[in-house]
Amino acid sequence: MANQSDVLAAIQANLQLAIQRSRPPEPAKTLKFELDGQVRACCLPKPITYSDLLKCIQNLFGKRALSSIELTRCVFSRDDALRLPITNDEDLNKVLAISDANGSNKLNFFLTRKKTHAMSRVVSVNNHDDSGSISDDGQTLDNDDTSVDSPPPGTIAPQKRRTKINTNNQKVISKDGGLFIPEAGDDTYSSGGSSVASRDSSGSEHSSRRRLRTTSFARLSASSSAGSSGSGVNTSSSLSQANSLESLRSQCSCSSHQYKTPRTPTNWKLGRQLGQGAFGKVYLCYDVDTGSELAIKQISIRGLNSETTQEVKILECEINIFKQLDHERIVRYHGALRTDDFLQIFMEFMAGGSVREQILNYGALTEQLTKKYTRQILEGLVYLHENHFVHRDIKCANILRDVSGNIKLSDFGTSRRLIAITNQNQPDSGTIGTAHWTAPEIIRGSIFGRKADIWSLGCTIVEMLTTGPPWQNLQPIAAIFHIATCEKPEYKLPSNVSSLAKEFIDTCLTKDYNQRPTALDLIRHSFLDNPQFPSSSSP
Ligand SMILES: Nc1ncnc2c1ncn2[C@@H]1O[C@H](COP(=O)(O)OP(=O)(O)OP(=O)(O)O)[C@@H](O)[C@H]1O
User: Fold this and answer.
1) Which of ligand 1's atoms lies nearest the C-alpha of 356?
2) Which of 57, 118, 158, 287 is 20 to 30 A from 71, alpha carbon to alpha carbon?
3) Above 0.95 for ipTM, yes or no?
């Protein structure tokens, strides 16, 4: 006769089994991959390992394609601006944890081939529109040919992931880095973008400053985005793309009559190199006709495929529109020109270089100087936000100084397109150097709005006071994991920094988008009250 403990053990084992059986299986993840403009998807049950990921790529695109792939990058933001490389199980686990924390069961990956295998078509991904049909067969297909006429199961039809139709039946593209973005719950906008009811800022100390004709800018942004959409996967859209570009061009030329805009130099000489960023080199530029000095950013466009060339054309046109942005806290664009080898962006010359360089040369800033810069950054942001633009790349490297020690916001509105343009030659450009400053809602791919700039401002203030943003010791993928999953960013301020400064930073770094203040709210914060800013020439 079995003794009592044996019986108890058997009952326990049976119970355990029953509990395990009744537990729902872990939900599967949908993995979408884009390679050379083709998007394919598969479903994998958890846990997912890095080798599962590679197997999945092989099943979807073939063995040969797998061996030609240099980089697998996870796409976090809805406008593609944040893509980070996944190279091992640790990276993948962080990505999975971010997606779990967001309550999402989808992951988007962008695959880049080794240079020698480069295909003629490389386009940017925009696969956050999840209305597309996905088949779950990715695990069994063995396809060695990536240029199939009839796409294999798992392929997502291009037209299903490119465009959305708004209530006015206009195409609205969600790829709008740096451009006008309507937000629910924080302002009221028409969905068409052409009639805009903005926040009433008549009481603002800045409202008397130059204000753009928001209506025409919103329209311009929408049409430029439409042009961008055409540069994507769908070849049939090339005609509409050309039309969008044409309409954008006509608005460019029309705008130069309407507004007093700086002229693009036609007769100029290249001066010394001022610096180098992720997208190209910056030189001094002497305008022979006017005798003035400008800065010129040269971005290599040699050997780009035709679709990326369209992005270049649109960016060139957009910059010629951005020339109208005129504020003492914004680095003025003087236009853009294209040669066979370069896209050349002319800008106001800022003799003091970037605040990043200032920190690298002289160390962390004092609280008093940080306060002055913060106020000036906010003045620039209020102007941009009132005119329905989001900067999207606020960090010390994009804040430039004049000779008097005052600052301006630079690189406005170009980052997303530059990422798309340089992706072919420098796959990591731009996105890695931005991860630590990225707002949680961008990583979630949920809301795209002005308050992302406020989060980045909080990180920038930490950078000014400590020489690096929150989570500065972490690799980009680990940093965004912490931004997405932790309640509060981790940073340590010098002991002499006031509690008011700390409170101001914490306010900027409010995780909840809706609770986070606007630029206008912050400019009235008591941290910025002291009018005695040190300056050799106060504004
Ligand atoms: N308008 C300007 N006037 C004077 N110097 C400039 C100007 N724009 C850029 N520079 C110099 O060129 C450097 C590189 O600028 P760039 O905008 O290419 O890259 P970045 O902003 O430093 O980095 P990233 O490309 O990651 O945004 C700057 O650090 C600065 O020294």
Assistant:
1) 29
2) 158
3) yes
